[in-house]
Design a protein that fits this description.
mainly alpha, Lysozyme, two-stranded antiparallel ribbon
């Protein structure tokens, strides 16, 4: 396991332990501060920034998006790295540091699971009697089966068979259950690329067949590609899409990378060691040891423990994965990864598509794990939908009104712009603006072209005004009966789950407007304008408000004086 940003956090924890930081404290009131103060140690704005990053990391962990959680935790650790002990032990900061420590521990646990188990990459040696019993169990389970991948039944491999079917039983059952969903696709791709079909079980060792798996070395996806290697083999990534998380694209790239490593080394065990540690590491080990035998390298000091156990884990995974019932494992059969592809020509939210075709949004996310922002990227995109729903999805996309689409724009940072000012102008948060462009705060500079992400749902409500114009009729699709769209003042009460449904009105009518409104904690000028059907400019003018600064308890006039 490679060292990562956790080392930075370790220094912070050492300071806190030395000073005996308490685990409880006060929260900071929701007051806005100048952007320049967000990096000042201990400033209320910096504390709010830290709190936001911690909460974002916790939310990402709840959604099982470890990659985003790790990125937010990294930002938080960078933010507090230079803070003094006196600042870190403040009652409003120390609880956040403690929550950050819990996040990092959870990420470490997820990483350990993704890299092949629930703990260290070493297992206890078997006694001669235990090894003999395990060998007899393997021989009985395989029943004369033939493998297209070379398997050495030595003591190390037998020790991993024992570990996977005992103390790591939960991990191997979960991995093989997920494998039932992807294994037909993976084996087909490997066969097309000329690789052994049994090599498909390598995804058990790499990620447990998880598309969202990640590592400290920033390796992502089922096949754990780092960004540079992924790009070499055709996997791209940006603020909207991460193809290393796509099971089909990443599997094809992994097959070609493994094939290339085998061509270089001429030995599958050395090729796998190169996949795990890098081909240069294997060549240095061979040169230093004077041997190109993997097991000689595994007994030497030239490979890390993770690489030494890599091949034995794969051999054990193949033996168990081919006959899991013979080892008493409970493997749940999942539906295969199957889908239809629909062309999406303009950026669209998955929630809108899911609602129109009558499926859960999570279903579309599972079929399209490469999407990072719960929406298709700008421009053309091939969206995967459940089998049999291609036609209904085409109809749904054709009937979407402009207000249901996501409009994206670009913007070049000008002199005098600040991150907060640009974010406010386009009705997004500074964090969303940075995330959409893959930037850190110090990279926000004059002349940089930004891709503007869509506003939050609350902000979108002000744009989505109800329309009395009839919807355009749906296009005819060969072999089907054309469906004419009609205006509906209320949502349809009866509809088949897979038929496109007409949307209800996008926003509710504004409240009956009182004379004034007392600002509540957390309210913004924009939210109040939406609530009462007023423009922000009118509220500013009537109440002599500069910018967007309002305070809790302040009374705003809602009518022209």
């Amino acid at each position: 396991m490679l060292p990562g940003p956790g080392a930075r956090f370790g220094r912070i924890l050492l300071l806190l332990v030395a000073w005996g930081v308490a685990g409880s404290g006060l929260a900071v009131a929701g007051v806005s501060f100048p952007e320049a103060a967000e990096t000042t140690p201990g400033h209320p704005s910096a504390v709010m920034r830290l709190k936001g990053l911690v909460e974002a990391a916790e939310k990402a962990l709840e959604s099982e998006d470890a990659e985003t959680a790790s990125a937010r935790a990294d930002e938080a650790e960078i933010l507090v790295e230079g803070w003094s002990v006196e600042v870190l032990r403040r009652p409003d900061i120390s609880p956040l540091i403690e929550r950050l420590r819990v996040i990092r521990r959870q990420l470490d646990e997820l990483e350990a699971e993704a890299e092949g188990g629930e703990g260290p990459v070493e297992v206890e040696d078997l006694t001669p009697a235990e090894a003999e019993a395990e060998l007899a169990r393997v021989r009985d389970a395989e029943g004369g089966a033939l493998y297209d991948f070379p398997i050495d039944l030595n003591e190390t491999v037998l020790a991993w068979v024992h570990a996977f079917t005992n103390q790591k039983r939960g991990f191997i059952e979960g991995s093989l259950s997920r494998a039932t969903q992807y294994m037909p696709m993976v084996q087909q791709v490997f066969q097309e690329e000329g690789l052994p079909r049994d090599l498909a079980f390598l995804a058990v060792v790499e990620s447990g067949f998880k598309n969202t798996a990640f590592s400290r070395a920033k390796a992502v996806g089922m096949w754990q590609f780092i960004q540079s290697t992924g790009r070499i083999y055709g996997l791209t990534g940006n603020a909207w899409v991460e193809e290393r998380r796509d099971p089909i694209k990443a599997t094809r790239a992994a097959a070609r990378y493994l094939k290339r490593l085998y061509e270089i080394t001429g030995d599958w065990y050395l090729a796998l060691a190169g996949y795990n540690a890098g081909p240069l590491t294997v060549e240095r080990a061979a040169a230093g040891l004077g041997s190109r035998n993997y097991w000689d390298m595994a007994r030497s000091r030239f490979l890390r423990n993770e690489t030494k156990s890599y091949v034995p884990q794969l051999c054990a995974a193949i033996l168990i994965g081919r006959h899991p019932e013979k080892y008493g494992l409970n493997v749940v059969q999942m539906p295969p990864y199957a889908y239809e592809t629909v062309a999406v020509e303009r950026q669209t939210r998955l929630s809108v598509v899911a609602r129109r075709i009558g499926v859960a949004e999570s279903t579309l996310k599972e079929l399209n794990p490469e999407l990072l922002r719960n929406m298709t990227p700008p421009g053309h995109y091939s969206l995967r939908v459940p089998p049999g729903m291609g036609v209904s999805t085409q109809r749904a996309l054709a009937s979407l009104s402009p207000r249901e689409r996501v409009e994206t724009r670009s913007y070049v940072v000008r002199r005098g712009d600040t991150l907060a000012r640009v974010a406010t102008r386009f009705k997004v948060t500074p964090e969303d603006l940075l995330e959409a462009n893959g930037l850190k705060r110090n990279q926000f500079k004059v002349g940089r072209r930004l891709q503007i992400p869509p506003p939050t749902p609350v902000m979108m409500a002000s744009v989505a005004e109800p329309s009395e114009k009839p919807l355009e009729p749906l296009p005819e699709i060969p072999g089907t009966t054309p469906v004419q769209a009609a205006v509906a003042s209320e949502p349809p009460t009866t509809a088949k789950p897979q038929e496109p449904q007409l949307p209800a009105k996008a926003v509710a009518e504004p409240e009956a407007r009182p004379i004034s409104h007392r600002v509540k904690a957390g309210e913004t000028l924009f939210a109040i304008s939406v609530r009462y059907g007023l423009s922000v400019d009118s509220l500013r003018k009537w109440n002599r408000v500069r910018g967007n600064r309002i305070q809790a308890g302040q009374r705003l006039r809602l009518q022209k004086p």
